[in-house]
Structures are given as structure tokens and as C-alpha cells.
Specification:
- The chain is of the alpha/beta class and about 425 residues long.
- The chain has two domains: about 200 residues, Enolpyruvate transferase domain (UDP-n-acetylglucosamine1-carboxyvinyl-transferase, Chain), CATH 3.65.10; about 210 residues, Enolpyruvate transferase domain (UDP-n-acetylglucosamine1-carboxyvinyl-transferase, Chain, Alpha-beta prism).
- It is built from 14 helices and 24 strands.
- The strands form six sheets. Strands 22-23-1-24 form a four-stranded mixed β-sheet. Strands 2-15-17-16 form a four-stranded mixed β-sheet. The protein has a four-stranded mixed β-sheet with strand order 4-5-3-14, with helices on one face.
- The longest helix has 14 residues.
- It starts with a strand and ends with a strand.
- Bound molecules: ligand EPZ.
- The site of ligand EPZ has 25 residues, from helix 1, helix 5, helix 6, helix 10 and helix 12.
């Protein structure tokens, strides 16, 4: 099992290129099924979750080539039905996107109940509610979700919770439904807009993505296209947090600064300097941060996916920080690992109180999920001495070449399988 080793205390300087957005790429690859033709997807990150969804796509009969440059050619013309292999599909969260895409193309689909990071109960009732409203019958038996419909008919769907996954899944299921589907209380994340743009490039008629009301007018058929995925705002945010905490002067390149507004504002509150340009941001910091309060919220609020790295940074900030996690009920599990490094954090339900200490100390720790892993990397960068992060595969699910990118910035970081 791979470990990441970090010798802490180095300042970060230089430029880091941000990869394509995992959470947009996963539904976009699944949505290629809707074309039933050849699609070319550019700017994909070469990370474990993308390899995994490609494996599922291949297993159901898609022809896939994935270049070292992050360009994937996917031909789904030979896929005749969608029964996703159980063991492959239950391992990642995003396999649920095959439900919306498969339902739309074949009117019948079977996918294992999805897995993913252990950060709370993560129900999929809103996805199911949407599929049923469109006319599908949904059953869950022996760990498999089966959706079937004679016809899909557009309708109005009000989401009880703002859900990224449900919004995207319903959009995909509805693109070829008869008439108009309206999703109310839709999620507004940049990747909702990216998926809608991709669907429209394939000939769909989706309007309003990025607002809380999305209208989808069903079309007869979609077609293949070439599309480039947006940059990963969470990867970008992670490097920004790392630079602010470690100190130095870092250009985070190939980003859309508008998507980073909440993290930019928060880092400025900590006293780091953040300068925005057209497609990069520059973070300048002496590594001495001030404590801040954060409440995670759906976009454009502070992203829950950045809560974990940010808490690691604040564990050495001056004063107290109060962090409220309002999206997932169990996203503080990694704090026990931070405590091994000396962090002074008290968790009460969805609130963590962080009392900044002088210096974390390197320790043997374990990544419990993807962003927990990112938090431990940030902690390792600022700690005194050596940090060994076990279960590095969690980090590889979402960060492309993390050791390489951080080494280029001057960090002392490497990987070992011993
Ligand atoms: C996506 O998960 C991301 N995953 C998550 O990223 C991210 O944390 C999350 O969106 C929020 O931004 C992928 O894109 C693969 P949600 P998703 O549906 O779609 C509740 C990462 O680190 N809910 O927006 O599953 C749910 O429990 C990962 O990259 C329901 O109650 O998240 C949560 O409290 C981790 N019923 C809230 O809504 C439902 O049917 C938001 O979840 C669906 C969700």
C-alpha cells in the first residue's frame, strides 16, 4: 500500500498547473453514453476515479482511449444495455451517474448502490424521486438499483435538498424525455454548468444551469462532440490553502478565479494575500495565519470539500477558528488523525473548534477519505519533522501527481510502498 512521506517546514514557491475537474469529468464521461457515438473529452485529470469510471464504461461495451495528455476518446455506439458490474460500480460514488444516463438511453438500467468517501449517510432519495417523477420505476434489491421506464415524460421536480448529484442525474435522465422538465432548488455548482454545456454540445436543450431553476426541453436524439472539462476548483483551493499555510509565493495556474471566490475571501481573512488574474491566482503568505470562522454551504458558499484542508491550515493559525460543516454530518473523522500531529480541535456534532497551536509535529497518520488525505498533506507540509500518510490511494482518487506538483513548489515529499 502506497504511503506519502513529507518532511515539513519548507516554504512553497513557483507555479502549479491545475488539472481538469474530477467532479465534472465523472458525470461527463458517463453522459457520453447519451450520444451513442464517438465523443472526445479533453482536459481530464489522470486520477484513480477517472480510471475507475472508464473501467466501468469499458466493461459495459464502450471503446475508450485515454491519452497521457488527458484526452479521452469514448465511443458508446456498441453499448446495447446498461448493467454495470456490481463490484466495480459499488466502489465509487459517481457510478450513480450511469443511472441517469442509462435510463435516458436504454429506458432500463442496473447499477450497484454507490460507494465513495465515508463522510456521512449520503442518501440518493432525491435522485430516485427525480427518476420516478419522470416516469421510471425504481427498485433496490440485493445492493442493486434498477430503474425502468416505458416512457420518460418531462415534469416539474422540486429537490428537497440542494444536491449536486441529483441535479446532474435528473438533467441527464431528462434530456430526451418528452416535453419540458423543470428542476427547482437545483444545485448551482460550476460543474452543473459544465455538464449542462456538455449536454448542450451533444444537442440537448438545457437552460438555467448555474441558477436554482433548470429547464430541460427534451430532444429526440443526441450526438457525439468534442468538449473540454473546466479546471478543478477543489484541487486549486487545496494548493491555495497549502501555500497560505506553508508560506511562500505560489501561482495556481489554469483556474477560473470566479469559481474560487469563497476560498479567496476566506484566505484573505486569514491574512494571506491573494491576487486574481484572468486564469490564475497568486497566493503570497508568510505562513502566519489568523483564525477564521467557516460554514460550509452549497456553491457559491464555502465548499465542503475544502473544509478538511482548511482545518489543517487553521490548526497552526493564531487564535480560535469555528468550523461548521453543514453539508455532511460526518466529515470531521479525519480530525483524530490531525490530533496525532498535536492539533487542538474539539468536535461537537457538526461544529469543530480549532485552537491554533505553535507547531504541528510530524507523525504516522492515515488518510480516511480523499479530502482527509489532502488535509493530512497540508498538515505534513507545515509540521515539524516527518509525516507518513498511509492509504495514499484515497489521495490518488482526486489529485493528479500530487507529489510531483508539490515537489516542483519546493516541498520535500515522496511516495513509498514500504
Ligand atoms: C458531490 O457529491 C461530490 N462528489 C462531493 O465531492 C461533494 O462533496 C458534494 O457533491 C458537495 O459539493 C462527486 O461529484 C462525485 P450532494 P454528491 O448530492 O453529489 C444530501 C469530493 O471530495 N443528499 O450535493 O453525492 C447529502 O447527504 C467529494 O470530491 C440527500 O439527502 O453530494 C448531502 O448532505 C466528496 N439526498 C447533501 O445532500 C440525495 O438524494 C449534498 O450532497 C442526495 C444528497
Amino acid at each position: 500500500m502506497d504511503k506519502i512521506i513529507i518532511e515539513g517546514g519548507k516554504k512553497l514557491n513557483g507555479l502549479v498547473d491545475i488539472s481538469g475537474f474530477k467532479n465534472a469529468a465523472l458525470p461527463i464521461i458517463s453522459a457520453c453514453l447519451l450520444a451513442g457515438e464517438r465523443c472526445v473529452i479533453e482536459n481530464l485529470p489522470r486520477i484513480k476515479d477517472i480510471f475507475h469510471i472508464s473501467k466501468i464504461m469499458s466493461a459495459i461495451g464502450s471503446e475508450i482511449e485515454f491519452s497521457e495528455k488527458g484526452i479521452m476518446v469514448i465511443d458508446t455506439s456498441k453499448v446495447e444495455k446498461l448493467v454495470a458490474p456490481y463490484d466495480l460500480s459499488r466502489k465509487i460514488r459517481a457510478s450513480y451517474y450511469l443511472l441517469g444516463a442509462g435510463l435516458s438511453r436504454f429506458k432500463e438500467v442496473e447499477v450497484a448502490y454507490p460507494g465513495g468517501c465515508d463522510i456521512g449517510t449520503r442518501p440518493i432519495d432525491q435522485h430516485i424521486k427525480g427518476f420516478e417523477a419522470l416516469g421510471a420505476k425504481v427498485e433496490i434489491n440485493h445492493g442493486v438499483i434498477k430503474c425502468k421506464a416505458d416512457r420518460l415524460i418531462g415534469t416539474k421536480i422540486y429537490l428537497d435538498v440542494v444536491s449536486v448529484g441529483a441535479t446532474i442525474n435528473i438533467m441527464m435522465a431528462a434530456v430526451c424525455a418528452e416535453g419540458r422538465t423543470t428542476i427547482e432548488n437545483a444545485a448551482k455548482e460550476p460543474h452543473i454548468v459544465d455538464v449542462a454545456n456538455f449536454l448542450n454540445s451533444m444537442g440537448a436543450n438545457v437552460k438555467g444551469a448555474g441558477t436554482d431553476v433548470i429547464r430541460i426541453d427534451g430532444v429526440e436524439k443526441l450526438h457525439g462532440c468534442t468538449y473540454s472539462v473546466i479546471p478543478d476548483q477543489i484541487e486549486a483551493g487545496t494548493y491555495m490553502v497549502a501555500a497560505a499555510a506553508a508560506g511562500g509565493d505560489v501561482i495556481v495556474n489554469n483556474v477560473i478565479p470566479k469559481h474560487l471566490e469563497s476560498i479567496i475571501a476566506k484566505l484573505r481573512e486569514t491574512s494571506a494575500e491573494v491576487i486574481e488574474y484572468d486564469d490564475f491566482v497568486r497566493v503570497i503568505s508568510d505562513g502566519k495565519l489568523k483564525g477564521v470562522n467557516i460554514k460550509t454551504l452549497p456553491y457559491p458558499g464555502f465548499a465542503t470539500d475544502l473544509q478538511q484542508p482548511m482545518v489543517a491550515a487553521l490548526s497552526m493559525a493564531e487564535g480560535m477558528s469555528i468550523i461548521t460543516e453543514s453539508v455532511y454530518e460526518a466529515r470531521f473523522k479525519y480530525i483524530d488523525e490531525l490530533k496525532r500531529m498535536g492539533a487542538n480541535v474539539k468536535v461537537d456534532g457538526r461544529v469543530a473548534i480549532v485552537e491554533g497551536i505553535e507547531r504541528l509535529s510530524g507523525a504516522k497518520v492515515r488518510a480516511t477519505d480523499l479530502r482527509a488525505g489532502a488535509a493530512l498533506v497540508v498538515a505534513g507540509l507545515i509540521a515539524k519533522g516527518k509525516t507518513e500518510i498511509d492509504n495514499a490511494f484515497h489521495i490518488d482518487r482526486g489529485y493528479e501527481n500530487i507529489e510531483q506538483k508539490l515537489s516542483n513548489l519546493g516541498a520535500k515529499i515522496y511516495r513509498t510502498d514500504r
